[in-house]
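Sorry, can you check?
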Amino acid sequence: MSDILVTENIQGASMIRLMEDLDVEFDAYLWQNRDLLKQKLQDTQALIVRNQTQVNQELIDAAPQLKIIARAGVGLDNVDTDYAQAKGIIVCFTPDANSLSVAELTIGLMMALLRRIPEARQDTLTGGWNRIKFTGTELYGKTFGLIGMGRIGSMTATRAHAFGMKIIAADPYLAADAPVLKELNGRLVSLDELLAESDVISCHSPLTPDTRKMLTYSHFSQMKPDAFFINTSRGEVVDERGLTQALLEHKLAGAALDVRETEPPEQSPLNQMENVILTPHIAAFTVEAQERVVDSVCEDVRLVLSGKPAINVFKP
């Protein structure tokens, strides 16, 4: 048994140093074997996970010595934070480490959608040279609607604004006079207004009981038929069947999904649509972001195990 257990593929210089300095067991696929995982947790003081390990009540009860759960990422929907904290376990995460990378991917997906880059590439590889067919759309002057205007949403909006896009946002926790809206000359609107006005909609909502499947067929049907939808937040906030139906009925022009309801996803009609870009939850996966994420979780584990307060502690 080890003091520190890493159950997913979380690598980097800080992890190597942690393994050199402390008692660490690293098993990138341990999350797939719940029985073995519970067995190894009996004497573990620190658990480091990403998003595949479901740290529920059963798992926490199997770890009586656990002091810290360190999530290498921003979302905590795979960790029962309430139960962990009730048991006196510190929950840490990396809320800022990958924000820039997610924002940049969102902009990249938007440009790929509006300029039809994946379609044009595939056509060219098969011998085509159809310049007129792949006439795209400029970002300049278009309305960019953000569902959720937290750190990632704000960073994405700032970059979209630099392209000359008009910014609107729907966020129940954002004030109409919020500084970020003033800086971007943006407006706070209702979700219905955002759906009706936006040329591009980008979702940056966390997964909560209130947001699970909050975007349904009826919502996508309110979009402009030439508008696009992007999701780099959590796949479960979208009813994929509803989105698929709306796309088949041309209620919107296209979509880009970095996250899915089930990961990895099963085969879907989305796979066959030329106006849909699918990526395997890579928004946070840049060299720089992963270095920051691993640095953060390893530092917090070191601090807690040495009796010092962690830095990035989750607070409800």
